[in-house]
Write a structure and sequence with these properties.
There is one protein chain. Helices cover 22% and strands 28% of the residues. The chain is of the alpha/beta class. An eight-stranded mixed sheet has the order 5-4-3-6-1-7-10-9, covered by helices on one side. It has a two-stranded antiparallel ribbon with strand order 2-8. Helix 1 packs across helix 2. Bound molecules: NADP nicotinamide-adenine-dinucleotide phosphate (NAP).
Length: 192
């Protein structure tokens, strides 16, 4: 069975974005989880997919221009992810979205199709890119095997919490804790 691995960048108070709808404390949307070598597919929620596609398309087409979320020139690691995204199948969990601009994007309509994706072989692991509602609902459904968090050193205050929709208690197994530059902490949890 392929593993489904979620990765999210959050504040100390568990927010995955601020009141303006972006995590403006994140300087670059690179793969800081070290996940690229072990995955060959990405899964995303319908809420975040249009913005994700727009962001990485602009980096692919205009790598010298400031990126629209960060307002800064893309980092080499972001360019690397843009190239990886362009050649990697993306699956969007949505009952309402029907089309995407990327030829490598297709749609899954519910939890059974996500479970089927994990069973589809051969294949490496699958990266669950977000957003919050999708990550929380797939963890609740028992479909996520690992949660990788990068915790930024701030209280975001107002904003959307990663687990705002989760009502049930659940224990995780800490597999790795590592300090990153800029006061960030990388945490890897196994989900039993
Ligand atoms: N901080 C970070 O690391 C990070 C990472 C990724 C994203 N984000 C942010 O997250 C935000 C988006 O998160 P979000 O919570 O609003 O939306 P989301 O999780 O991307 O998408 C929610 C949508 O996904 C579909 N969905 C979710 N669970 C489903 C299920 N069990 N069955 C069927 N469909 C399901 C539904 O789409 P339909 O209504 O179409 O069926 C639902 O409306 C963006 O603003 C993005 O910037 C932050």
């Amino acid at each position: 069975m392929r593993k489904l691995i979620a990765g999210m960048k959050i504040s100390v108070d568990g927010k995955m974005e601020g009141p303006a709808g972006t995590a403006d404390w994140v300087a670059a949307w690179s793969d800081d989880y070290g996940i690229m070598p072990q995955v060959d597919a990405c899964l995303l929620g319908g809420g975040m997919y249009p913005g994700y596609e727009k962001y990485w398309t602009s980096l692919q087409n205009e790598p010298d221009k400031p990126a629209w979320i960060t307002g800064a020139a893309p980092t080499p690691a972001e360019i690397e992810w843009a190239r990886f995204a362009a050649r990697t199948p993306h699956y969007v969990l949505s009952k309402t979205l029907a089309s995407a601009h990327w030829p490598q994007t297709s749609f899954v309509r519910g939890l059974e199709e996500v479970a089927a994706l994990k069973k589809r072989q051969p294949g490496k692991d699958i990266y669950l890119v977000g957003g919050a509602r999708t990550t929380a609902s797939l963890i609740e459904a028992g479909l996520v095997d690992e949660l990788r968090l990068i915790v930024y050193p701030l209280l975001a205050g107002e904003g959307k919490a990663l687990f705002a929709t989760t009502g049930r208690r659940r224990g995780f197994e800490l597999r790795e804790a590592r300090q990153l530059p800029g006061g960030r902490v990388s945490l890897i949890y196994g989900i039993g």
